[in-house]
Specification:
The complex is a heterodimer of chains A (175) and B (282).
Chain A: E1 3-7, H1 11-21, E2 27-31, H2 34-40, E3 48-51, H3 60-70, E4 75-80, H4 85-93, E5 99-102, H5 107-154
Parallel strand pairs in A: 1-2, 1-3, 3-4, 4-5
Chain B: H1 10-75, H2 79-88, H3 91-122, E1 131-133, H4 135-150, E2 154-160, E3 166-168, H5 170-187, E4 192-201, E5 204-211, H6 218-221, H7 241-251, E6 255-261, E7 265-273
Parallel strand pairs in B: 2-4
Antiparallel strand pairs in B: 1-3, 4-5, 5-7, 6-7
Helix pairs in contact in B: 1-2, 1-3, 1-4, 3-4, 4-5, 5-7
Classes of the chains: A alpha/beta (175), B alpha+beta (282).
């Protein structure tokens, strides 16, 4: 199940987003404070994290930077009523957010931004899975090659099959 | 700056002009302060507008679902068909959530209303006469206007005692309290506490704004009421807030004192007479 984390100090924003995302069928976790949100990063693996910018105790960019360290694969988004240049630059450069959305928002924009974040997350995951599989197969090949070399070194010629003119396998002590 | 009655003279004329210039300065500082608050107020309004707007869009889909059910009353062949639709639209969730949706949206609109009313209260230009006013109500209005500057910096604690109505120009007292609150928030580097205390002492009332901020360094302490003195970066402060506050309080025959310990915090104490001495100002 795809898990999404929403962080905003305003509870009513969280309820509105929860309503909005319900039909998508994702597991939506909401937090109205940064401390609990941080804690939940240790228990759940999120595909996307959407955070408010201005919150007491820590701003959204600071939170997302923490989140990036704990869960580098989760895609980060900001949903803020505070759209000044500095906050956007910080969000892009420091928290490397996927989208910067502003309040008030259009429902379809938020949904499509999160969908695209999830696609990106799944692509990343798929990529990782394929890379791991590739590495595993490479390791297997290397192990086989090494075994062959070892056998060849112990018994020169053992890895080569010798045949006569009509194709029969020749078995002999040596040449 | 006392307006002792003098015989009709050039001096009186000059005094009147000075007073007028002062008024204009006061008003423009107020507008500048509101301008600086505007970004914060926009944030404060965009939050409720954000969820109310989104809730309305959700309400639209809920209504479509409900209409689907009511319209099926005519076309459905059996009661089971209707039950199926009812189940499909998650009727129980929808019914419960509709109530929450409306309650939360109403709360949002109320908040916008409060902020707009506070802004209007706050920017009153016409009220220039001394009138008995409720200081606590003034403080609440001001808190509503500056809430956004405060809530990310400090927990606001109210320690209000009983106060009589105070004869004052409440819009100007609000402006002073706003300056003190915004300064308090700016003095706090990460997150602290701002305590607003009120009490009556004899025929005076006392309003204290106490912050747990970085304090005022001794070399700045005697300059804070000077016009244009500011430690804020260019564009962040006019340097007029405290000096105009001082003027306002002087005009009210009150006093404005400061106690500050660098590293621990600052306390501004505003003392106002409950009734103005009968000198018939202006």
């Amino acid at each position: 199940m795809i898990k999404i984390q929403l962080v905003d100090d305003e509870r009513n924003i969280l309820s509105a987003l929860r309503r909005l995302l319900k039909p998508e069928g994702w597991e939506v976790h909401t937090y109205d404070n940064v401390e609990e949100a941080l804690g939940s990063l240790q228990e759940h693996e999120y595909a996307a994290i959407v955070s408010d910018y201005r919150m007491p105790t820590a701003d959204g960019v600071t939170y997302l930077q923490f989140a990036k360290q704990r869960q580098p694969d989760a895609i980060r988004l900001v949903l803020s009523a505070y759209g000044d240049r500095d906050s956007m630059i910080k969000a892009i450069n420091q928290a490397e957010v996927h989208r910067y959305l502003s309040k008030p928002w259009e429902d379809h924009e938020v949904v499509s931004a999160i969908r695209s974040a999830i696609d990106l997350y799944q692509l990343k995951k798929e990529n990782q899975r394929l890379r791991e599989e590739n590495n595993r197969q490479k390791d297997m090949l290397r192990a086989r090659e090494e075994e062959l070399l070892r056998l060849e070194a112990e018994n020169p010629g053992i890895t080569r099959v010798q045949r006569d003119a009509d194709g029969s396998v020749l078995i002999g002590d040596d040449d | 700056m006392s307006n002792a009655p003098t015989p009709q003279s050039d001096q009186e004329l000059l005094n009147a002009r000075l007073e007028q210039a002062n008024q204009q300065l006061l008003q423009s500082e107020k507008l500048a302060a509101i301008g600086q608050l505007a970004a914060g107020v926009a944030h404060e309004i965009n939050n409720p507008v954000g969820y109310v707007y989104s809730n309305l869009q959700t309400l639209d889909t809920y209504l479509n679902d409900l209409f689907r059910l009511t319209e099926a009353v005519d076309s459905a062949r059996s009661l089971d068909d209707l039950r199926l639709i009812k189940q499909n639209i998650d009727y129980d969730y929808l019914r419960d959530d509709l109530r929450d949706l409306l309650a939360e949206s109403r709360e949002g609109i109320e908040r916008v209303k409060t902020i707009i009313a506070a802004m209007k209260d706050f920017s009153h230009i016409e009220e220039e006469a001394f009138k008995p006013a409720d200081i606590h109500r003034g403080i609440e209005t001001t808190l509503n206007v500056v809430n956004n500057e405060l809530k990310y910096k400090a927990e606001v604690v109210r320690e209000f005692d009983e106060l009589p109505e105070v004869e004052c120009i409440i819009s100007q007292i609000n402006q002073v309290v706003m300056n003190l609150l915004v300064n308090a928030a700016h003095a706090i580097e990460s997150f602290g506490r701002i305590t607003i205390r009120t009490r009556q002492e004899g025929d005076h009332v006392i309003i204290e704004v106490h912050d747990t901020g970085k304090g005022i360094s001794p070399e700045h302490r005697h300059r804070i009421f000077e016009p244009f003195f500011t430690t804020k970066p260019v564009g962040k402060g006019t340097g007029l807030g405290l000096s105009l506050s001082f003027n306002i309080i002087e005009k009210h025959k009150g006093s404005l004192d400061v106690d500050s310990t660098p590293g621990e915090g600052t306390c501004f104490r505003l003392t106002l007479p409950v009734t103005q001495p009968d000198t018939d100002n202006e």
